[in-house]
Amino acid sequence: MNDVEAIFSRRGRVEPYPAVGENGGTCWRFFGLNIDGDAEIAVGIEAFHDGDGQERIILCTVLPPKEKS
C-alpha cells in the first residue's frame, strides 16, 4: 500500500482505461515510481458516484513493476 500511496502523491502519468466500470464509473491507470523510486508500477482504479451521490474510488489492480531505465 505504500507503493500505491507513492503513485498518487507523486502525481505521475494518468491515462483513461477503456474498460467498463462495474459501478458505472470510469476506469483510470496511474503510473509512477514505487516508494523506493527504483521501479515503475501502474495502479488501476474506478471512479464513480455511489447511490447517495458520494464520490468513490475503488482500487482495482496494481500492475507488476518495471525496472527503471
What would your notes on this structure say?
This protein has 69 residues and is mostly beta strands. The chain has one domain. Helices cover 13% and strands 54% of the residues. It has one helix and four strands, in the order H-E-E-E-E. The chain has one helix spanning 2-10; strands at 13-17, 26-33, 39-49, 55-67. Strands 1-2-3-4 form a four-stranded antiparallel sheet. A hairpin with a 5-residue loop joins strand 2 (26-33) and strand 3 (39-49).
- Mean pLDDT score: 88
Proportion of helical residues: 10-25%
Would you tell me the structural class of the helices and strands?
Answer: mainly beta
Q: What's the structural domain tally?
A: 1
User: Which range does the strand content fall in?
Assistant: over 45%
| Main pleated sheet | 4 strands, antiparallel
Radius of gyration: 13 Å
Please give the count of helices: 1
Extract low-pLDDT stretches.
none
* Number of DSSP E strands: 4
Query: Tell me, what's the shape?
Result: elongated
Q: Alpha-carbon distance between the termini?
A: 23 Å
Search tags:
single chain, 69 residues, mainly beta, 4-stranded antiparallel beta sheet, 4 strands, 54% strand
Topology:
Layout: H1 2-10, E1 13-17, E2 26-33, E3 39-49, E4 55-67
Antiparallel strand pairs: 1-2, 2-3, 3-4
Question: What is this entry, summarized?
Answer:
By secondary structure, this protein is mainly beta.
